[in-house]
Design a protein that fits this description.
The chain is of the alpha+beta class and 137 residues long. It is built from 3 helices and 7 strands, in the order βααββββββα. The strands form 2 sheets. A 5-stranded antiparallel sheet has the order 1-4-5-6-3. It has a two-stranded antiparallel sheet with strand order 2-7. The radius of gyration is 15 Å and the shape is elongated.
Length: 137
């Protein structure tokens, strides 16, 4: 089952062409990633600060299908495509207010210790969270 998050496009998200500047979508993906944790009782801040577990991106890619503009509310669907021993693959699909797909992308995150910044096995509680949202691509 996928998770959904909404975000309003701000003035500063646009470029001179008056459309969302493409790198901003990776920021939108990360906002939805944080919301994914927070909305399910795993505050992202607590994950980092209390559990000392980090999730840096180690690979990211996206395809852009139509422009998004200032003032639009975008819905980002978050699904987990793969859960490995020390990494997970997330898929993001962004839709505009009309329901039309704006872009989609994949981000692979590594599980690291915030103390050593080295890879570690995904803790059981996060593995269970990810597996609840596992979908085939």
């Amino acid at each position: 089952m996928a998770f959904e998050s909404t975000l309003k496009v701000r003035f500063g998200d646009e470029d001179h062409a008056r459309i969302v500047y493409y790198p901003r979508f990776f920021h939108f993906f990360h906002c939805a990633f944080e919301d994914f944790f927070d909305a399910q009782g795993f505050p992202y801040r607590a994950c980092l600060d209390d559990d000392r577990v980090g999730w840096p991106a180690v690979h990211a890619e996206a395809d852009f299908e139509r422009p998004a503009r200032f003032g639009e509310t975008l819905t980002t669907r978050v699904a987990v495509r793969r859960v490995g021993g020390k990494s997970a693959t997330f898929h993001f699909e962004v839709r505009g207010p009309d329901g039309e797909r704006v872009c989609h992308g994949t981000v692979v995150v590594a599980c690291i210790s915030m103390d050593s910044y080295r890879g570690q096995p995904i803790p059981d509680k996060y593995r269970a969270l990810f597996e609840r949202h596992l979908e085939e691509g």
